[in-house]
Amino acid sequence: MRKNAVGLALTFALVFIPWQSAWGQVSIGAHAAYMSEIGTGFTTETADGTMGVGGRIGVGVPVVGLKFLGTVNVFFPDCGVEDCDFYAGTLNMLYTIPVPMIIKPYFGAGVVVQKSGGATSLLGDLTDWGANLTAGFSLSSGGAFQPFFEVNYQLMTDFDDQLVLAAGLSISTW
Fold this sequence. Notes:
56% strand
């Protein structure tokens, strides 16, 4: 009986307690984004310098400085009277550099998927996969709200490679 109680306590300590800490590092946020160009599939005149909005959700791994971050962006290319759309989503693993300052720099990599469509898309609806390289920083004042700025370089197969800038606010949920 004593072995079962010790085993149950160890299982609880190894499984439940770290996840409680990880849930304390769950964050959600919103941001504005700027994409340098969309490239292949859109007419060049209408898609360079495209603004967008997005959302994000992240889960931190306690102690080691890792964070898994998913983002979704909707961009608004200037297509004149034509109907067009452009979406992007990323899934990244980030590492926060441990510095004892209010600025918390991070970097990482992941995957990106992009979708274009509408009348201005020369190739019709197109979905493309690629790699995403991220670097940025957040401002941590010890509260739940953390402003951030990041730079993403997206290496695509069908679309041109893109530089995406994002700035917004992340909120710790627990």
